[in-house]
Protein backbone atom coordinates (compact mmCIF):
# COMPACT_ATOMS: atom_id res chain seq x y z
CA UNK A 1 0.00 0.00 0.00
CA UNK A 2 2.88 2.35 0.77
CA UNK A 3 4.33 1.91 -2.70
CA UNK A 4 0.97 2.13 -4.48
CA UNK A 5 -0.09 5.25 -2.59
CA UNK A 6 3.29 6.84 -3.18
CA UNK A 7 3.27 6.18 -6.91
CA UNK A 8 -0.34 7.28 -7.39
CA UNK A 9 -0.33 10.43 -5.25
CA UNK A 10 3.22 11.60 -4.64
CA UNK A 11 5.54 10.37 -7.35
CA UNK A 12 3.97 12.55 -10.07
CA UNK A 13 4.74 15.61 -7.91
CA UNK A 14 8.43 14.76 -7.49
CA UNK A 15 11.41 15.29 -9.74
CA UNK A 16 14.07 13.14 -8.10
CA UNK A 17 17.53 12.17 -9.28
CA UNK A 18 20.62 10.50 -7.84
CA UNK A 19 20.64 9.86 -4.10
CA UNK A 20 17.14 11.35 -3.70
CA UNK A 21 15.70 8.89 -6.24
CA UNK A 22 17.54 6.01 -4.56
CA UNK A 23 16.29 6.99 -1.09
CA UNK A 24 12.76 7.35 -2.47
CA UNK A 25 12.85 3.88 -4.04
CA UNK A 26 14.37 2.30 -0.93
CA UNK A 27 11.80 3.84 1.40
CA UNK A 28 8.64 3.42 -0.64
CA UNK A 29 9.36 0.20 -2.48
CA UNK A 30 12.18 -1.91 -1.13
CA UNK A 31 11.55 -1.38 2.59
CA UNK A 32 7.79 -1.64 2.18
CA UNK A 33 8.00 -4.96 0.32
CA UNK A 34 10.78 -6.26 2.59
CA UNK A 35 8.75 -5.30 5.66
CA UNK A 36 5.74 -7.15 4.30
CA UNK A 37 7.80 -10.24 3.49
CA UNK A 38 9.48 -10.29 6.91
CA UNK A 39 6.71 -8.97 9.16
CA UNK A 40 3.65 -9.36 6.96
CA UNK A 41 0.42 -11.15 7.75
CA UNK A 42 0.80 -14.79 8.53
CA UNK A 43 -0.52 -17.21 7.65
CA UNK A 44 -3.25 -15.55 5.53
CA UNK A 45 -5.02 -12.23 5.07
CA UNK A 46 -8.58 -12.31 6.36
CA UNK A 47 -11.20 -9.63 6.98
CA UNK A 48 -10.15 -9.32 10.62
CA UNK A 49 -6.61 -8.47 9.50
CA UNK A 50 -7.97 -5.97 6.99
CA UNK A 51 -9.93 -4.18 9.71
CA UNK A 52 -6.96 -4.16 12.06
CA UNK A 53 -4.62 -2.99 9.31
CA UNK A 54 -6.91 -0.02 8.63
CA UNK A 55 -6.77 1.20 12.24
CA UNK A 56 -3.30 2.76 12.07
CA UNK A 57 -3.65 4.58 8.70
CA UNK A 58 -7.12 5.92 9.49
CA UNK A 59 -6.00 7.02 12.96
CA UNK A 60 -2.91 8.67 11.47
CA UNK A 61 -5.06 10.42 8.86
CA UNK A 62 -7.53 11.76 11.42
CA UNK A 63 -4.77 12.94 13.75
CA UNK A 64 -2.77 14.48 10.91
CA UNK A 65 -5.74 16.38 9.50
CA UNK A 66 -6.68 17.71 12.95
CA UNK A 67 -3.13 18.75 13.83
CA UNK A 68 -2.53 20.23 10.37
CA UNK A 69 -5.49 22.56 10.81
CA UNK A 70 -4.01 23.80 14.08
CA UNK A 71 -0.42 24.28 12.90
CA UNK A 72 -1.32 25.07 9.26
CA UNK A 73 1.17 22.56 7.83
CA UNK A 74 0.28 19.48 5.82
CA UNK A 75 2.79 16.65 5.28
CA UNK A 76 1.51 15.95 1.76
CA UNK A 77 0.02 18.30 -0.83
CA UNK A 78 -2.96 16.01 -1.45
CA UNK A 79 -3.99 16.52 2.21
CA UNK A 80 -3.86 20.32 2.05
CA UNK A 81 -7.29 21.81 1.28
CA UNK A 82 -5.58 25.08 0.21
CA UNK A 83 -4.08 23.23 -2.78
CA UNK A 84 -7.20 21.99 -4.58
CA UNK A 85 -10.00 22.31 -2.03
CA UNK A 86 -11.51 20.11 0.64
CA UNK A 87 -13.26 17.98 -1.98
CA UNK A 88 -9.92 16.95 -3.46
CA UNK A 89 -8.64 15.98 0.00
CA UNK A 90 -11.74 13.85 0.61
CA UNK A 91 -11.42 12.22 -2.83
CA UNK A 92 -7.72 11.43 -2.22
CA UNK A 93 -8.39 9.98 1.25
CA UNK A 94 -11.37 7.92 0.12
CA UNK A 95 -9.45 6.84 -2.98
CA UNK A 96 -6.50 5.52 -0.97
CA UNK A 97 -8.86 3.76 1.44
CA UNK A 98 -10.77 2.14 -1.43
CA UNK A 99 -7.48 1.10 -3.07
CA UNK A 100 -6.42 -0.43 0.26
CA UNK A 101 -9.72 -2.33 0.51
CA UNK A 102 -9.53 -3.56 -3.08
CA UNK A 103 -5.98 -4.85 -2.67
CA UNK A 104 -6.83 -6.62 0.55
CA UNK A 105 -10.11 -7.95 -0.86
CA UNK A 106 -8.08 -9.45 -3.70
CA UNK A 107 -5.67 -11.01 -1.20
CA UNK A 108 -8.51 -12.30 0.97
CA UNK A 109 -10.24 -13.67 -2.14
CA UNK A 110 -7.08 -15.53 -3.11
CA UNK A 111 -7.45 -17.55 0.07
CA UNK A 112 -10.20 -19.56 -1.63
CA UNK A 113 -7.83 -20.81 -4.31
CA UNK A 114 -4.66 -21.19 -2.23
CA UNK A 115 -3.79 -24.28 -0.25
CA UNK A 116 -4.63 -24.05 3.44
CA UNK A 117 -2.06 -22.15 5.46
CA UNK A 118 0.30 -24.18 7.61
CA UNK A 119 -0.56 -24.17 11.29
CA UNK A 120 1.74 -22.41 13.71
CA UNK A 121 3.19 -24.43 16.52
Question: Could you characterize what this model shows?
Answer:
There is one protein chain. The protein is mostly helical and 121 residues long. It has two domains: 1-40, no CATH class; 44-121, no CATH class. It is 70% helix and 0% strand. It has five helices and no strands. The mean pLDDT is 82.
Index terms:
121 residues, mainly alpha, 70% helix, single chain
Sheet with the most strands, sense and barrel status: none
Low-confidence stretches: none
Principal-axis shape equals: globular
Oligomer: single chain
- How many DSSP H or I helices? 5
Fraction of residues in helices? Answer: over 70%
Q: Give, in order, the helices and strands.
A: HHHHH
Question: Which structural class should the secondary elements be placed in?
Answer: mainly alpha
Query: How many domains is the backbone divided into?
Result: 2
Strand proportion, as a percent range, falls in under 5%
| N- to C-terminal distance | 30 Å
For the CA atoms, what is the radius of gyration? 17 Å
The count of DSSP E runs of length 2 or more, i.e. the number of strands, is 0
Average pLDDT for all residues: 82
Amino acid sequence: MTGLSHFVLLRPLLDLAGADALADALLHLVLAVLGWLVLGPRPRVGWREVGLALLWPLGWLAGTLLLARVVDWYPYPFLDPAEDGLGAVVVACVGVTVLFLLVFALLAGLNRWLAPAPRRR
